[in-house]
Design goal:
Elements (H helix, E strand, L loop, with lengths): L2 H27 L19 H31 L6 H29 L4
């Protein structure tokens, strides 16, 4: 992988992980207001502030795991951009991010639907 590509992808992974970290921390603290841009936006979670908060508090831990792994994969790429496994690091970081975001969405939606926090 060319050096510029590795550095660019590493930065993208770090920034994506940092954004997800902010979302996870705001979700955990209940500071994520109901909106149409960021968060678990289903008919169930958008029905009330209570459902929204339940969903996001339940999703906070998976989102936190996703953010840490994504940032770590980006840092590995930034610290060792010319090693032979750069593409594998990028793919692993993206798969990690997607898995935990989807997991958080599922857990959050179920918590909102059931009306209870985890």
């Amino acid at each position: 992988m060319p050096l510029g590509t590795a550095i660019g992808l590493g930065l993208v992974l770090v920034v994506a992980g940092a954004i997800l970290l902010i979302v996870a921390l705001r979700s955990r603290s209940g500071a994520m207001p109901r909106n149409w841009i960021v968060g678990i936006r289903t008919t169930t979670t958008l029905a009330s502030d209570e459902a929204w908060n339940l969903a996001h508090r339940a999703a906070a831990s998976p989102l936190l795991l996703g953010s840490i792994g994504t940032m770590l994969s980006g840092l590995v790429l930034l610290l060792r951009p010319t090693n032979g496994f750069g593409l594998a690091v990028v793919i692993a970081g993206i798969v990690w991010l997607l898995f935990w975001v989807l997991r958080g969405g599922i857990v959050g939606h179920r918590a909102a639907k059931d009306g209870k926090s985890l």
